[in-house]
Amino acid sequence: MKRTSSLFGSLSVLLLTTGLAIAAPGMAGHGHGDEAPTGKPGDPKKTARIVPITMKETEDGKMVYFPDKVEVRAGEQIKFVLKNAGKTDHEFVLDTVENNAKHKIAMQKNPDMEHDDPNSRRLAVSKNGEIVWQFTKTGAFEYACLIPGHYEAGMKGSVIVK
């Protein structure tokens, strides 16, 4: 028993001292469960409209998505095909503006936070990824890079669901 608690204590100290943080279920900005404010994870086996999104930096120091606005119909399934064409890691977090603002604060405290959410992807330089999402609710939503400093440099876009 003593050996187990000692090992557990050592692991806890290791995690705390390395600064590694893992996003927990239900944390602000995460789309866990069947239904999030923006909709729900899509079914990769079903037809989806493909929307390519490129993440990059500009020569004048801005960080951008192209395109920075997407319009969809309520009920529509979208396959976001993500490409990091920049010179640094970027992420794509799809949520409400309010939830992204809360998550951005958490990211400032834990910039190396790892995500395991159906509504977000972090991509290293020159990497690609995908998110399949079904927009079940109308409204204005946001995709954003919440790595510290990126949002402030302009890395955000909008999804308008009609």
What does this structure look like?
Residues 31-46 have a biased composition (Basic and acidic residues). GO terms for molecular function: copper ion binding; electron transfer activity. Residues 1-23 form the signal peptide. The chain is an alpha+beta fold and 162 residues long. The chain has a single domain (2-161), classed as Sandwich (Immunoglobulin-like), CATH 2.60.40. The protein contains two helices and ten strands; from the N terminus they run αββββββαββββ. The strands form two sheets. A five-stranded mixed sheet has the order 1-8-5-2-3, with no helix packed on it. It has a five-stranded mixed sheet with strand order 4-10-9-6-7, with helices on one face. A hairpin with a 5-residue loop joins β2 (49-57) and β3 (63-66). It is globular. Mean pLDDT is 83; it is low at 1-33.
What key phrases describe this protein's structure?
162 residues, alpha+beta, Immunoglobulin-like, 5-stranded mixed beta sheet, 2 helices, 35% strand, disordered N terminus, BlueCu_1, metal-binding, Cu_oxidase_CS, electron transfer activity, copper ion binding
Quick structural gist:
By secondary structure, the protein is α+β, with helices and mostly antiparallel strands. 19% of the residues lie in helices and 35% in strands.
Indicate the topology.
Blueprint: H1 2-18, E1 40-41, E2 49-57, E3 63-66, E4 69-72, E5 77-84, E6 90-95, H2 97-109, E7 120-123, E8 128-134, E9 139-144, E10 156-161
